[in-house]
């Protein structure tokens, strides 16, 4: 993701650190757990030393850009999740879908192997070719310390997402 680098108040300029290779090339909502892909880090910017120690973690958090979403299709007002009128209309920040103001995705996925700058993962819900903006090891201490709550529609929506 390359943008105009002119500094302006409120403007954030990001440069992809890599790309997703493999996995799905077309978006559909469910059954991501078995999808395997590679997060290929940019060899022009990094050496394998950048991932030293990462092999000791079971999961990664990957921040990526929904680069195929047309910004004109983003609406911040209430809408039905996945367009399903059985679920209540909620605002953009109550969704995790790709039509977001900055088109950022965050996914927690299993780390399968590391080969040089290739991070082999499973369950990354990003499309092949998606720009990767950051990779972080998943730490249990960042998980909520108390029980979490979510509405019934969200549980129903996610029932097959990783199934």
From TrEMBL:
Keyword Glycosyltransferase attached: no
Gene Ontology biological process terms, A to Z: methylation
Keywords: Methyltransferase, S-adenosyl-L-methionine, Transferase
Span of domain TsaA-like: 14-147
Entries under PANTHER family matching the protein: TRNA (ADENINE(37)-N6)-METHYLTRANSFERASE (PTHR12818)
Family statement drawn from the similarity comment of this UniProt entry: Belongs to the tRNA methyltransferase O family.
Protein known as: SAM-dependent methyltransferase
Organism: Actinomadura rugatobispora
The organism's taxonomic lineage, starting at the top: Bacteria, Bacillati, Actinomycetota, Actinomycetes, Streptosporangiales
């Amino acid at each position: 993701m390359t943008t105009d680098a002119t500094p302006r108040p409120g403007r954030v300029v990001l440069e992809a650190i890599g790309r997703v290779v493999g996995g799905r090339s077309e978006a559909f909502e469910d059954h991501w757990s078995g999808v395997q892909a590679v997060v290929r880090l940019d060899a022009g910017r990094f050496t394998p030393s950048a991932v030293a120690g990462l092999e000791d973690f079971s999961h990664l958090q990957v921040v990526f850009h929904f680069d195929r979403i047309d910004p004109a299709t983003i609406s911040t007002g209430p809408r039905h999740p996945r367009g399903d009128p059985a679920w209540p209309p909620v605002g953009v920040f109550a969704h995790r879908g790709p039509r977001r103001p900055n088109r950022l995705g965050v996914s927690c996925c299993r780390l399968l192997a590391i080969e040089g700058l290739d991070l082999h993962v499973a369950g990354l819900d990003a499309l092949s070719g998606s720009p990767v903006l950051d990779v972080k090891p998943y730490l249990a201490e960042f998980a909520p310390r108390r029980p979490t709550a979510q509405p019934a529609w969200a549980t129903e929506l996610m029932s097959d997402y990783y199934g």
